[in-house]
Specification:
Blueprint: E1 3-7, E2 14-18, E3 24-27, H1 30-36, E4 41-47, E5 51-55, E6 60-66, E7 69-74, E8 80-85, E9 91-95, E10 107-111
Parallel strand pairs: 3-10
Antiparallel strand pairs: 1-2, 2-5, 3-4, 4-9, 6-7, 7-8, 8-9
Bound molecules: zinc ion (ZN) (2 copies).
């Protein structure tokens, strides 16, 4: 089975994913922008059962950013890691930037474009959604 690995900037937190990633999207919402200090967060959904921490789970910090979303980050270097959904515990959200390998798949859409940064122009041809992608998107 396909296996991917990833880690934070300092390397004290590391994880492993088995199986396929869900669709990759660029999320332009204001929360992702702040969390990453960037124009958008490139993320995908992963089945919780396919994800495991292999190092540093104890030094993870958590931040509850909204009613159902808990974001995690490395306590040492501050790298943004996964988010967990209180209402969907079967899945986690993973930022692609932390992966050690090329997962093979590519971003398929820009989401929350309605709240994107004024200073960033989207120049790709991917579909754009003002908010969340449609229900059947496979996230
Ligand atoms: Zn770190
Ligand atoms: Zn977002």
């Amino acid at each position: 089975m396909k296996k991917l690995t990833g880690k934070c900037l300092c390397g004290e937190v590391a994880y492993e994913i088995e199986g396929e990633l869900g669709p990759i999207v660029n999320c332009h919402c204001s929360m992702c922008r702040r969390w990453h200090g960037a124009a958008f967060r490139t993320r995908c959904t992963v089945k919780s059962k396919n994800f495991k921490w292999v190092k540093g789970k104890k030094i993870l910090s958590e931040y509850q950013s909204s009613e159902f979303v808990i974001q995690t980050f490395c306590s040492i270097c501050g790298s943004s890691l996964i988010c967990m959904y209180k209402d969907k515990s079967d899945y986690i959200g993973l930022p692609i930037g932390g992966l050690d390998q090329d997962p093979g798949n590519r971003p398929v859409a820009n989401i929350f474009v309605g709240s994107k940064a004024a200073w960033y122009e989207i120049t790709d041809d991917l579909p754009q959604y003002d908010e969340e992608p449609p229900e059947n998107f496979g996230l």
